[in-house]
């Protein structure tokens, strides 16, 4: 018996549907209109575009987040995934490496402060 045959529908992870993603994008867009530099709203909209596979829009929002906060490792990492999905491996690698460097420095700085 396969895993899918033993799992009830309630056991599977929830995946947002197209309408949910469109609704989320609209809500985040309204929040961004009110507060254009709201990094969290821009990042969340980028994630919604990413899940919707609207890659140019996702990259544009990840770019905007990174412009506002160059140390936003999550946006760099997610943008690297989109670049990889689009076959832009050099860009994907550069973003991934930068995200890892930021996280590594944060960890090293945090460990040094604890000593």
Layout of SSEs?
Elements: H1 3-6, H2 18-34, H3 39-52, H4 55-68, H5 73-85, H6 89-114
Helix pairs in contact: 2-3, 3-4, 4-5, 5-6
Region (Disordered): 1-20
Keywords: Repeat, TPR repeat
InterPro entries: TPR-like_helical_dom_sf (IPR011990), TPR_rpt (IPR019734), Ycf3 (IPR050498)
Descriptive report:
With 115 residues, this protein is an all-alpha fold. It has one domain (17-114): Tetratricopeptide repeat domain (Serine Threonine Protein Phosphatase 5, Tetratricopeptide repeat, Alpha Horseshoe), CATH 1.25.40. It is 77% helix and 0% strand. The protein has six helices and no strands. The chain has helices at residues 3-6, 18-34, 39-52, 55-68, 73-85, 89-114. Helix 5 (73-85) runs antiparallel to helix 6. It is globular. It starts with a helix and ends with a helix.
Give the amount of beta strand, in percent. Answer: under 5%
Query: Cα-atom Rg, whole angstroms?
Result: 17 Å
Structurally, the number of domains stands at 1
Give the integer mean of the pLDDT values: 88
The geometry reads as: globular
What's the end-to-end separation, in Å?
Answer: 53 Å
Topology order in helix (H) and strand (E) letters: HHHHHH
Largest sheet: none
Number of strands: 0
Can you tell me the CATH superfamily? Tetratricopeptide repeat domain
The poorly predicted ranges are 1-13
Please tag this protein with its features.
115 residues; mainly alpha; Serine Threonine Protein Phosphatase 5, Tetratricopeptide repeat; globular; repeat; TPR-like_helical_dom_sf; Ycf3; TPR_rpt; TPR repeat
């Amino acid at each position: 018996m396969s895993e899918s045959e033993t799992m009830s529908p309630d056991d599977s992870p929830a995946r947002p549907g197209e309408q949910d993603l469109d609704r989320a994008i609209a809500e985040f867009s309204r929040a961004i209109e009110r507060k254009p530099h709201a990094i969290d709203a821009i990042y969340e909209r980028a994630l919604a575009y990413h899940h919707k596979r609207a890659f140019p829009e996702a990259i544009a929002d990840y770019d905007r987040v990174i412009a506002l906060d160059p140390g936003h490792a999550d946006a760099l990492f997610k943008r690297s995934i989109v670049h990889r999905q689009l076959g832009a491996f050099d860009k994907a690698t550069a973003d991934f490496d930068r995200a890892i460097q930021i996280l590594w420095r944060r960890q090293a700085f945090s460990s040094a402060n604890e000593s």
